Amino acid sequence: MTNQVLAEFLLHVGDSQLILSHRLAEWCGHAPELELDIALANIGLDLLGQARTALSLAGEVEGLGRDEDKLAYFRTEREYRNLLLCEQPNGDFAQTLVRQWLMDHYHALLFSALTESQHAELAAFAVKSLKEVKYHQRFSTTWMERLSLGTAEAHEKTQQGLNQLWRFTEELFVLTADEKQLVDSGVIPDIENLKTQWLEKITAELARFKLSLPELGAYRSGAKQGLHTEHLGFVLAELQYMQRSYPNMNW
Amino acid sequence: MNNKNNWSLYEVFVRSKQGLSHRHVGSLRAPDEEVALQNARDVYTRRNEGISIWVVKSELITSSQPDEKAEFFEPALDKVYRHPTFYNIPSGIEHM
């Protein structure tokens, strides 16, 4: 039972990284500047590396003989556990940066807490990921600053991106009833507790960026039940096409 | 940002793991120093090429001119006594 819950949690973490990585890869060849193109791809590749570790570990813990590829390529939309925020379309550059900035702050807190996990492999994964995430955070914060305090148009687009995505942030900090046992045994942190720190940081930075905190109206969640927005199906169609058409092919 | 002409040209210097000094690796455009440094990190060190980066605005570099080559460099060509070729370098000396 505990193993199954842990496997689900690892899928949640790994799927979020995988889908976000795929979204960032969509910028390849389209970013506003060559240097930004490379930067976004770099971050995407970091996330892909993290996703591989998380999914491999999920497969091991689950014990059904599924490796990282099996998990990435042969699960359906309803079996994916990624955060809805990660699957949202890129929009414009500002919206992509807002999504990244929200996720980077979340990842930084999550991985900092996970470094103290009683599960040795999970703790090691967190230590390694945290280094990468700290750079992502630096990059996205730098650009949030420049966009929001730059021209009026850039400021407006950044605010719009934030308004668009804010309703997906509530579910970053949802802890399921089953996961409470992982918290009790020190395997994962109490994710609900991270929310206060996250919100403090986000609020402070938004004030610095002269952006307003959107009001939270109706929000969307469902990651941990595999209930997604309409966008994930299209991402998976592209991501899984080759393996679905030619199962187990390699090159 | 919509006006790319506002982005300055920066020269990038990277010190590799084995390297003793920073070497010029190329140039890039960026709106300010911090972004220049991050761009340099992403463009020039993503395959583990370096452990330290310098960026400097190209316009801040004073350089010799190609047409000054004669007076700048040629006088050094024919003075063999200026080169330490008459000494044996002790075997313990590295990086000469």
N-to-C SSE string of chain A, H for helix and E for strand = HHHHHHHHHH
- The CATH superfamily of chain A is identified as Ferritin, core subunit, four-helix bundle
| Count of separate DSSP helical elements of chain A | 10
Could you tell me how far the N terminus lies from the C terminus of chain B, measured between alpha carbons in angstroms?
47 Å
* Gyration radius of chain A, rounded: 18 Å
Distinct helical segment count of chain B: 2
> Please, how many domains of chain A?
1
Highest-level CATH class of one domain in chain B: Alpha Beta
Report what the structure shows.
The complex is a heterodimer of chains A (251) and B (96). By secondary structure, chain A is an all-alpha fold. Chain A has one domain (2-245): Ferritin, core subunit, four-helix bundle (Ferritin). Chain A is 66% helix and 0% strand. Chain A has helices at 2-25, 34-62, 68-73, 84-87, 93-114, 120-148, 152-165, 180-184, 191-208, 232-245. The longest helix of chain A has 29 residues, at 34-62. Chain A is globular and about 55 Å long. With 96 residues, chain B is of the alpha+beta class. Chain B has a domain at 4-62: Phenylacetic acid degradation B (Ubiquitin-like (UB roll)). Chain B is built from two helices and three strands; from the N terminus they run ββαβα. A three-stranded antiparallel sheet of chain B has the order 2-1-3, covered by helices on one side. In chain B, a hairpin with a 7-residue loop joins strand 1 (8-15) and strand 2 (23-30). The longest helix of chain B is centred in the middle third of the chain and has 12 residues, at 33-44. Chain B is flat. The model of chain B has no long low-confidence stretch (mean pLDDT 86). Chain A binds chain B through residues 32-36, 38-39, 42, 135, 138-139, 142, 146-147, 150-151, 153-154, and chain B through 1-2, 4, 7, 28-32, 34-35, 38-39, 41-43, 46.
